[in-house]
Amino acid sequence: MVSIRSITLGLAFALISIPTLAHHSRANFSDEVVAFEAEVTRWEWFNPHVYAYVEAPDANGVMTEWEVEMQSTMGLVRRGWSADSLAVGEVITIRANPDKNPDRKLLFGITYAKSDGSLLSSQGSARGPADDVPPAESLVGVWSNAGWGGAGPRNSAATHLPLTEKALMAAASYSETQNPMTQCIFGLPPGNLGGPYLHEVEILDEVILLHLEYGEIARVVYMDGREHPTDLTPSYQGHSVGLWDGDTLVVDTVGFAEHPWGNGRGIPSSTQRHSVERLKLSEDGRNVEIEYMFEDPEYLTESIMGSISWGHAPDMQMLPNTCDPEVAARILN
């Protein structure tokens, strides 16, 4: 097996930051802000998005129901919400961005003023780790990279990447309706190490577990010196083996299943995809600095390299967030 420590030597590469595969594009929503009083008719606390349904009279006085899209449950909890924040029959004053198509009674919510004088927000900054958290002694623990938004537009294919002809053909047929999240299919490493969600590292005797809050994913990194098996069953998280290069954890992953947007928004990935991640605790113990490389000769003309930083968040808790396929598929409507 090729040494993990030297795996990137001699490779052509591009220093490019890629966006994580997360929620769908919001390009259909206007920047206009509308505000009106409405009654809550339904309240659905599900993932990947929470939805409220509210009823109010339109310009002609006809009672009309509006669908209000919000963040994930994790994003709302960190903005002060709970599953009981709204109730059917409650009257609220809502501020929101409407869909650009006036025939669609769809909003992306901003704030919600309740009759008791309280104000809830579903946009803006979520609560991050406290400023005075103690430093970590190792990679073990909970880590946050809240606020990391990735690179590239969210309403078009990732054509800033070095793409093969096959990838360019896929990019040319880009449609938001192809978003894998509509089927609760989450992104691949190393891209899913980014995004505004929590991560947790567990170091056990012969494996290291990398937990991702978004999608409730747990990657197993085998640390017992084994090689990648030749008869791997491909999977979205692949097969990972690791070693310690001094105080840096080096993770080598192969065995990826084909993914419709595995190399970036609108860019598929193949079973030839290969990634290497290097995770190191910063000197002050407050961050994990991650350098990554991935390659996929079927869709990329060069290897991609980049970096991500996590912040120590021992005061924060990983939250459950099972993806509901029916809710995820609503963007297709």
Task: Explain what the structure shows.
The chain is mainly β and 333 residues long. It has two domains: 4-23 and 131-332, Calycin beta-barrel core domain (Lipocalin); 34-71 and 79-121, Beta Barrel (OB fold (Dihydrolipoamide Acetyltransferase, E2P)). The chain is 5% helix and 36% strand. 35% of the residues are buried. The model is unreliable at 1-11 and 147-151 (pLDDT under 50).
| Gross morphology | globular
**Which strand order do you get reading across the main beta sheet?**
8-9-10-11-12-13-16-17-18
Tell me the total number of β-strands: 18
Fraction of residues in helix: under 10%
The name CATH uses for the topology of the largest domain is: Lipocalin
Beta-strand content estimate:
35-45%
Order of helices and strands: EEEEHEEEEHEEEEEEEEEEH
Low-confidence stretches: 1-11, 147-151
Biggest sheet layout? 9 strands, mixed, barrel
Kindly report the average pLDDT value.
Answer: 89
Number of alpha- plus pi-helical segments: 3
Structural class: mainly beta
Number of domains: 2
Amino-to-carboxy terminus distance: 48 Å
* Estimated radius of gyration: 22 Å
CATH superfamily of the largest domain: Calycin beta-barrel core domain
CATH architecture of the largest domain: Beta Barrel
CATH class group of the largest domain: Mainly Beta
